[in-house]
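User: Please run a holo structure prediction.
Assistant: Happy to. Please share the sequence and the ligand.
User: Here you go; the ligand is adenosine-5'-triphosphate.
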Amino acid sequence: MEEEKERAAFTKKEIDYHAELEAINRELAELEQLPVNAERTFKAKKSELRPDIVTKVDEPIFLTPTKIKAVKRDLSQVIPSGIEILDKRIIGFNKRELTIWSGSNGSGKSSILSQLALESVDHNFNVALFSGELQADRVMNWITLQGAGKRYAQPTKYENYYTIPEEVKNKISRWLDGKLYIYNNNHGLKVLDVIRAIEECIDNNKIDVVIIDNLMSLDLSSVHGDKYDKQTDLVLRLSQLSKDKKVHIHFVSHPRKSIGFLRKTDISGTADITNAADNVFLCHRCNNDFKRNIKEYFGFKDDNPLMRYDNVIEITKNRDLGVSDLFVGLYYEKESKRFLNTPDETKYYGWEKDKEGFVNCLQDEIPFAE
Ligand SMILES: Nc1ncnc2c1ncn2[C@@H]1O[C@H](COP(=O)(O)OP(=O)(O)OP(=O)(O)O)[C@@H](O)[C@H]1O
């Protein structure tokens, strides 16, 4: 009897032991699965930001030459920059493409891009503009100043601070209405929200040009990966967006370093960023540092024509026409913050033209402050 009891107790212990062993094994298997699951979650999150290229299932994967439909290049769909040498060499900005702009602080990136926005509208292309650093009203002030030009800029008691008469401001606003959309920063700077908002703006307002100024001001914390992976993912995503939505995207990315002569390899992120871009432009302000650097780097002499400009755009990559190592010099007009092709250039935008394209002489009617 005693022996039977002992055997029963022993069997129960054995069963408990096996159950425990099984539980431990299950737990171990779950633990082993953890990195696999983490990898899966990471990939899923990553694809939220960088969706794989969608395969068009109704088309063959490889095409024979006769099956490839020739798409005629429609030059009326190329967006001019208004910068003469640039437009002559690269024709303009193609839809479905991405341009990266870099340059040190104060080199003129934002100002050139707001002028590009005006130029685009002037050629009947609609623009969506995101500025992470300036509130919409400040962006609008700059654009108004550039749109008005020196003839309407009234000096104030502050150096380099000019105002525009209300009547001119209103005319410019009305002209830009329905063509220029400026992101309202009060909606936050979270990258996925901003991209979603841009996508909606493109769909709702027939946008042709998107300007994103700049990478550093976007909040990438919701995206997985290290800093450079996140930046690269974003650029790949924007490149895809330009193709899907048939827009040109201008994207500002600051350089990693703030001293020395800026080169393409100094742009923040990995090399994948510049690989993904169709154009890569560097902005330089022609100060003494720049002049010394180009003399040292390229062996240019003091009489090089570049020395006389105020700002220079360096084209370091242009995939379409293969332009590179081209320097485009510009003159800066402090009253209007405009960049000019020649020191005495006078440009008239659409807001001061009538239906036939003739310029209205509004300035004669406006009383100017002495
Ligand atoms: N050559 C120049 N001479 C004088 N002022 C200039 C020149 N180029 C640009 N500026 C002015 O300098 C200020 C800074 O320019 P802007 O903001 O366009 O530069 P940025 O490259 O975008 O700078 P950041 O990287 O700090 O955003 C603006 O008021 C602009 O009008």
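The chain has two domains: 1-49, 79-365.
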